[in-house]
Amino acid sequence: xxxxxxxxxxxxxxxxxxxxxxxxxxxxxxxxxxxxxxxxxxxxxxxxxxxxxxxxxxxxxxxxxxxxxxxxxxxxxxxxxxxxxxxxxxxxxxxxxxxxxxxxxxxxxxxxxxxxxxxxxxxxxxxxxxxxxxxxxxxxxxxxxxxxxxxxxxxxxxxxxxxxxxxxxxxxxxxxxxxxxxxxxxxxxxxxxxxxxxxxxxxxxxxxxxxxxxxxxxxxxxxxxxxxxxxxxxxxxxxxxxxxxxxxxxxxxxxxxxxxxxxxxxxxxxxxxxxxxxxxxxxxxxxxxxxxxxxxxxxxxxxxxxxxxxxxxxxxxxxxxxxxxxxxxxxxxxxxxxxxxxxxxxxxxxxxxxxxxxxxxxxxxxxxxxxxxxxxxxxxxxxxxxxxxxxxxxxxxxxxxxxxxxxxxxxxxxxxxxxxxxxxxxxxxxxxxxxxxxxxxxxxxxxxxxxxxxxxxxxxxxxxxxxxxxxxxxxxxxxxxxxx
Length: 484
Description:
Blueprint: H1 2-43, H2 51-63, H3 67-80, H4 85-97, H5 101-114, H6 119-143, H7 147-161, H8 166-178, H9 182-195, H10 200-212, H11 216-229, H12 234-258, H13 262-275, H14 280-296, H15 300-313, H16 318-330, H17 334-347, H18 352-369, H19 373-377, H20 385-399, H21 408-425, H22 428-436, E1 465-466, E2 482-483
Parallel strand pairs: 1-2
Helix pairs in contact: 1-3, 2-3, 3-4, 4-5, 5-6, 6-7, 7-8, 8-9, 8-10, 9-10, 10-11, 10-12, 11-12, 12-13, 13-14, 14-15, 14-16, 15-16, 16-17, 16-18, 17-18, 20-21
């Protein structure tokens, strides 16, 4: 009897445990179902099964560019109802806009399986393939440096069918940067960063645009923000430290100018220019700074070249025009100096420094057109009166017409030049006026009034030259005596 009661109790105990286990399993399944359905319930505003509200919620998320939330709702709906064709269609459309083309194509194909022959689905699948092909082509054209055509593919195809494509937007910014359209780069990357403020590529490109506009402080802030997010980002590190090095070199050059260490400044300017030849907005000032230092050092040819580089970048840079004029004066390019300084004076007619420089250049040009009596006598501007007289005697003997019977006309011409030169340089007052660039009537300006031979209606005076001891070999006839 006790044994029977014991068995009965054991049986009943097992039955209760089985019942409890069954209840637990049922509750577990119910909880799992609720968890799986929760995203869909949320998307439907607490009304499971209301597809219209689901798609309205998805549409609203797309409008505010919450693509991830829209995709989560659609994925939950599809998991709950794998036959919900419209969910596949909406998911495919969102994925196409994001240029997640492989995933999008699968969803379009699934939609068309459920809705075979649907014209809208087939049309969008075709657009997807056009956008995918155009994006691949744009990348290829970018690599081959055909930037204009690459931009056309992006603007006319990719971003029409895939307006939320981050890859296409970044590529467009790169193309605009390559085309030096820095303002557009800033605009395009601004839209990207509004959607994703931590987009490293957008931060880099936007920083580079500001850099090439010479807004270095803003560029540096973009690089720094990117490096805080990813300290090992190679391109951001290269851009950041490249900028730091450029600013350091530039400051060193300017400091050396202020200290009067001009040769060191030249090396610093050249070093800064070598860092990034494409940074025109900054390099224009480096070229100008280098030109000014070279003018101070008297290196006219090099200075003129540096100022020309600055003017090639900015043709309206007045100071570069003035400095190039000064450099041309150093190289005795008088006409070039007058042209540059005259252009500068026209741009800034009230600038007295430019007017003074122009007057110097015009005077130098005028002086360059008169005969160089020093050169004719073969003496320097610092020669003494005695040296000038000796040179004159030597040349007068060499070119005396009676001594050059076979080439008398040439000798007479040379003799006139020699006599005219001595007429100016042998007189202290006339020489001083000549050195100052003043006009000297008849003397030294190639006029017809001076004739050392006299006669011939020229109105000139008769010169009688007599050397002590006469000419060697009995030379001395023909009316040309020498009297010093």
